[in-house]
Model the fold of this input.
Amino acid sequence: MNIVCLDLEGVLVPEIWIAFAEASGIPELKRTTRDEPDYDKLMKYRLDILDRHGLGLKEIQETIAKIDPMPGAKEFLDELRSITQAVILSDTFSQFAKPLMKKLGWPAIFCNELVVADDGKITDYHLRCEKTKLTTVRALQSCGFETIASGDSFNDLAMIQASKAGFLFRAPDSIKADYPDIPACDTYDELLSLIKSAL
Done:
């Protein structure tokens, strides 16, 4: 029995932090998991910037409300879910993801949780588990699933490499160059074809 595990940002929707960096005029917030492999370091960096600028959840959610899935993403996901099971594994947060899941037709997503004070300040975050994507893929495998995974960033590599098949999707050239053994593609048609061939 197969299940496809997909990254969210950069694969199905634009990068939330990049969109917020542009909306807020704070270029430092454009740093993502494509740039920083250490997720804890990246999040502490982001929360420090938000604190210095007096920005909280409300401001980020206002930006997210204006984000649409990438062209073709919903159609790709609909077709994929018609032929096999799929779940989104993301290091984003439930407070960010919900409006995007609505636009994608409510696919299943496993993500993390922000700690938000009464005044809307983001004070911390909780990961579902350590090494969230790899741990989830291994848990699915322990339940009898064979996993197929796709993503675009450093934090996707472990789940891709641990799966029976894995693909880079619209990954930066630097990651593709460092991992030439992982098939890479840039269109949903190509990705769907690769997934079908692995089923």
